[in-house]
Amino acid sequence: MGNNFEEAFKKVIDLEGGFTLHKNQTESEVTYAGIYKKAHPNWRGWEYIDKKETPPTSLVRTFYYENYYKQFEDLPNAIAYVLFESSVNMGSTAIRLAQSVANVVSDGVFGPKTKEALQNVDEELFIAKFTLAKIAYYNTLAKRDRYRPYLRGWINRALSSVKEI
Questions:
Q1: Distance CA 112, CA 22 (A)
Q2: Across the chain, what does the average pLDDT equal?
Q3: What is the DSSP letter of 65?
Q4: Could you tell me if 79 and 72 are in contact, meaning their C-beta atoms sit under 8 angstroms apart?
Q5: How far is CA 103 from its chain centroid?
Q6: What whole-number distance in Å separates Cα of residue 151 and Cα of residue 134?
Q7: Is 113 exposed, middle or buried (0-12, 13-18, 19+ CB in 10 A)?
Q8: Cα 154 from Cα 100, distance rounded (Å)
Q9: Over the stretch 72-98, which tens digit does the pLDDT of each residue have?
Q10: 51-84: buried (b, 16+ CB within 10 Å) or exposed (e) per residue?
């Protein structure tokens, strides 16, 4: 895990609300440091939380690196960051949006063709188009009443990740 990951990790943890345990109104399980228990029930940090202890930061860091950042580390730093941050927030939808913006098959799998396309895009143009695609996606989600309360935060998050670059 290099310096680029450490910087990206700090930014994403801030966006996720820090090292806190909470329950979102639309979710059935708790979230710790952005890790949703229903989506990641086998994460070792839950053992600590179940005992009313704080999971080691290293467990959170390793989780984010292995599950999200690692696949992007050969990309230009700014693109790696926006894909990392977006994948944390929206899962494989982030890959599908990136593929659409990069004009490759949009299957949600970060494979060699996607990687090559993203290594050869104009960074600023890609990030601008990707951010607009994220906002459009969030707007579509917010048409469902249960997600409407998140729209402003999602848009602010999309715009803040661009400012961080």
A1: 37
A2: 93
A3: I
A4: yes
A5: 21
A6: 11
A7: middle
A8: 20
A9: 999 999 999 999 999 999 999 999 999
A10: eeeebeeebbbebbbeebbebbeebeebbbbbbb
